[in-house]
Write a structure and sequence with these properties.
Layout (H helix, E strand, L loop, with lengths): L4 E7 L5 H14 L4 E5 L5 H10 L10 H25 L3 E5 L2 H11 L4 H11 L7 E6 L2 H9 L12 H18 L2 E4 L4 H15 L3
Parallel strand pairs: 1-3, 1-4, 2-3, 4-5
Helix pairs in contact: 1-8, 2-3, 3-5, 4-5, 4-7
């Protein structure tokens, strides 16, 4: 059985994570490699219910930063136990749209909660289950706004003010430098980005 790999995709909303994940899933399918695509919040019945609450635009301004963080961690903890750990043990490639670094970016840098508190809860909720690779799509805020303008509607987080997204991006950039993430320029052609990630996997002997 092939060794499982847990790959997380991080970056601003609208940076193209889901499009890149689909392109990589297509490549894995062609190679007949067992894989799943999942997301946070989500991935389980509870996670998807909590996702509906967390992204509900009608609740803008109605969820405190601490409550928001705890809801994300609740969804994440179930995701780890029900999906991530079992699938990795079964040898799957796991392609996950967001993970605990998103909480550090959004709830610590974005909302202003203490970084050490967020990171403690991140590790506690996930049983210290960490990804094998984080792919960071580095997005320009102007490009993000252009992406938003093409959407029919925005969710509760996407509706936040520009300075909130600036703080979130600052958090991602800081973590990218500290944690040696695999960085890509957001809004590049999905096929080109996918090939860069695929080449890195080959270099690491994962495929």
């Amino acid at each position: 059985m092939s060794q499982g790999r847990f790959i997380v995709f991080e970056g601003l909303d609208g940076s193209g994570k889901s499009t890149l994940i689909k392109a990589l899933a297509d490549l894995l399918e062609k190679e007949s490699r067992a894989h799943i695509v999942t997301r946070e919040p989500g991935g389980t019945k509870l996670g998807e219910k909590l996702r509906d609450v967390l992204l509900d635009r009608k609740l803008k301004g109605q969820i405190s930063p601490r409550s928001e963080l705890l809801l994300y961690e609740a969804a994440r903890s179930e995701h780890v136990l029900q999906v991530l750990i079992p699938k990795k043990e079964q040898g799957f490639f796991i392609l996950c749209d967001r993970y605990k670094d998103s909480s550090t970016a959004f709830q610590a840098y974005g909302r202003g909660l203490k970084i050490e508190d967020v990171e403690y809860l991140n590790n506690w909720a996930t049983y210290n289950f960490n990804p094998d690779m984080v792919v960071f799509l580095n997005a320009d805020l102007k490009e993000q706004q252009s992406s938003f303008s093409k959407r029919d509607s925005l969710d509760r987080i996407e509706l936040e003010a520009h300075d909130f997204h600036e703080r979130v991006q600052m958090g991602f950039l800081k973590m990218s430098q500290d944690k040696s993430w695999f960085e890509l320029k957001a809004f590049s052609k999905p096929e080109e980005m996918a090939q860069k990630v695929w080449s890195k996997w080959k270099e690491l002997g994962w495929i």
